[in-house]
Amino acid sequence: MRYLVSVIDDKDNPGSTDRGPAINAFNERLIAEGHWVFSGGLADTGAATVVDNRGEQAVFSDGPFVESKEYLAGVWVWEAPDLDVALRLAAEASEVCDRKIEVRPFL
Amino acid sequence: MSDVAEAVTRAHHDEWARVVAALTRRFGDLDIAEEAAAEAFATAVERWPADGVPPNPGAWLTTTANRRAIDRLRRESKRDDKHREAQMTYGHPPEPAGAIDDDRLRLIFTCCHPALAMEARVALTLRMVGGLTVPEIARAFLVRGTAMEQRITRAKAKIKAARIPCRMPSADDLPDRVSGVLAVLFLVFNEGYLASGPGAGPVRHDLTTEAIRLTRLIRALLPQDGEVAGLLALMLLTEARRAARVSADGELVALDEQDRGAWDAELIAEGHRLVRERLAAAAAGAAPGRYQILAAINAVHTSARDIRDTDWSQILALYDQLVRLDPSPIIALNRAVAVAELDGPEVALAIVDRLAEALAGYHAYHATRADLLRRLGRSRQSRAAYDRAIELAGNTGETAYLTRRRAQLR
Predict the structure, then answer these.
(1) What residues of B are in contact with residue A88 (Cβ under 8 Å)?
(2) What residue stretches are annotated with the YCII-related domain (chain A) (predicted)?
(3) Which residue spans of chain B are classified as CATH 1.25.40.10?
(4) What's the mean per-residue pLDDT of chain A?
């Protein structure tokens, strides 16, 4: 079972910026335990571009698809046998990243 | 009710949770388990009048439900092989020896999973474990039936999509998972204590017994948990009054009119032992949670040989402690009953009236008000409050009680 694990930051109350080494160590463990599929931190939402080509021609707009106080700061894809395992890892991930985590299953 | 109809009703009470839990374990899918169980009971209603009630209704129902589930999976496998594969491989291997092996307990932990909203946990447990119908659950929680149906459907969909497992939680997760289960079991107990179905008797002994049975299991697993002990004591001290709580003609009997000789001395002794155990822990510095305080309140009630011997000041002190922990309007309403005994109905009525907005749809609010107004001699207002309470009360015994009290107004 695969889960998309989103790291959520808060513009008004951002998590600390010195989490890199701890996250690296956590990733090593995820890999060793067979949970790690993918991970990556994301550039600021200001660097996002939304593309809409449902009409006659593609429309490009600057910025994220939704402006909000909370935003996606990074993602993981994990392999886990069930939600209990994913939630236990996510509880650790939240502490390691100093940010909120959303766990969402893939179809 | 005919013998067969009665057998179906009894089988539903006795076997529903077992059938759903066994199927959930086998097929790893609540939806399939619930639907197959419901179909098996529908088949029983159809077939038992002609074929007779089988010698072992539980086994008959489980076998029938299993067949229905397999039929459904076969139908679906033709449409979607991948889906079928997921269903078939999802079942879990047996737990290692030593773990509590109870399908229903496992099912409860799934229904009470922390990834589900609290409301969904309660609704799901009552549906899947309690076997209550959606309208009965909706009534218990003062919401519309369609909203409750949606809540249950959404919860089942999440369990499936996110793969919430049907098994005992790990030792690390257990304490947190237990407090979620206790909240749900307390609500199940309350549904049994004050049954809401129009066809049901005033007390659904099966639900109170089931809640107590499962709470005892959790107590055996977590003997140090104060709230588990507190909840068990609370249930036992409430259950002990069951025989005295309903009259021969099915009317609820209020605490002040109960025959205290009919209380179950053994259950009271067991409940008091648990409360004493928690009082000792509190004296040693453990802060009591709400179930322990509620149990202590019930211990005070069950210690009085006569209603006039009730130590109301101790009860009020316990309610004050409870309000600090849980400032909900229902707790405030119950506290007002103790206030009425100590400071008189007028003071209590002022407190109750402040809860009007929050509790306008709650029968006990109107019943409490009616009683206070009656004691103040304000008969016309008391009658109106009784009218409203009777309108809202779903319990047959309570309706009978309220109707009699209204008729006694001058």
Answers:
(1) 170, 172-173
(2) 1-103
(3) 311-410
(4) 95
